[in-house]
């Protein structure tokens, strides 16, 4: 049995601008339902003029802190902020430092993590380890993504997938007013020989009088190859986590997964024997929010009352790198 924890607060934020995939399809000369039939995604969320990936992260963390009955003045060296971000606002300092400054968390300790889709499960293990060893009293786990700027609007493989959002969860090893949560198992893997399945490269750096202009390539994804590799690796990681937890598929009440698209989630769920009712798919109206997807899904499930005491939930992530992970938790 892993260290008992408390989930004292969750929060999420999504871009305020709605992109309808029917409109995207029409603009590309395709039938209105072209993207929906292939991905199950009806619409997505994007940032508006007043929003950035940092403001979305700030809103998600603020909601989680409020739910945990904490304010900026309550957060100091006893707290670690683990922040995952996909969508740059600064090259330096780290995205986590920018976020903590935005929130006025002057003394929080910050650890930034690269912003690919699978990282939240690895970050959860870091959080559990820090708390179990008494290295901190609480961990704020946050993730935010705004990847639409790197998507080619004419690339049919990616144009209908991505959305902007952020999620946050606050974990503590001490009793709080939150939800008791035991982590029964965590497994994650990295298959770096597959790193080229999805890339957004920097092609060149152009020094100018007052700035350096970066030439960044659009994100390109080998969608079919990525899906095949995911289907060959992710179920094994999930089964390993369930075995460590002593669970069978019928024991699992809820599967909170990274949200690539509805069709891929449906295929993986069927292979593992999970009923569709146990696998929420907010991606259908929010889009793929990269590393934020899992924490947004967790926040939605908790606020919708889907995690009462005694719930056995699987958290699972996967994505470019190639990396994947699964955690078995019980409330």
Provide the descriptors you would attach to this structure in a database record.
31% helix; single chain; 15 strands; alpha+beta; 9-stranded mixed beta sheet; 29% strand; 331 residues; two-stranded antiparallel ribbon
Largest sheet: 9 strands, mixed
Integer average pLDDT: 94
Radius of gyration: 19 Å
The helicity comes to 25-40%
- What is the strand content? 25-35%
Q: Which blocks of ≥5 consecutive residues have pLDDT under 50?
A: none
Instruction: State the order of secondary-structure elements, H for helix, E for strand.
Output: EEHHEHEHEHEEEEEEEHEHHHEE
Question: What's this entry about, in short?
Answer:
It contains 9 helices and 15 strands. The protein has helices at residues 21-27, 34-39, 53-67, 95-103, 119-132, 223-245, 262-272, 283-286, 292-303; strands spanning 4-14, 17-20, 43-46, 79-86, 109-114, 138-145, 165-172, 179-190, 198-199, 202-207, 212-216, 220-221, 254-257, 312-319, 323-330.
Explain what the structure shows:
It is a single chain. With 331 residues, the protein is of the alpha+beta class. It contains nine helices and 15 strands. The chain has helices at residues 21-27, 34-39, 53-67, 95-103, 119-132, 223-245, 262-272, 283-286, 292-303, and strands spanning 4-14, 17-20, 43-46, 79-86, 109-114, 138-145, 165-172, 179-190, 198-199, 202-207, 212-216, 220-221, 254-257, 312-319, 323-330. The strands form four sheets. Strands 5-4-6-7-1-8-15-14-13 form a nine-stranded mixed beta sheet, with helices on both faces. Strands 2-3 form a two-stranded antiparallel sheet. Strand 14 (312-319) and strand 15 (323-330) form a beta hairpin. Helix 3 packs across helix 4 and helix 6 (223-245) packs across helix 7. The radius of gyration is 19 Å and the shape is globular. The protein starts with a strand and ends with a strand.
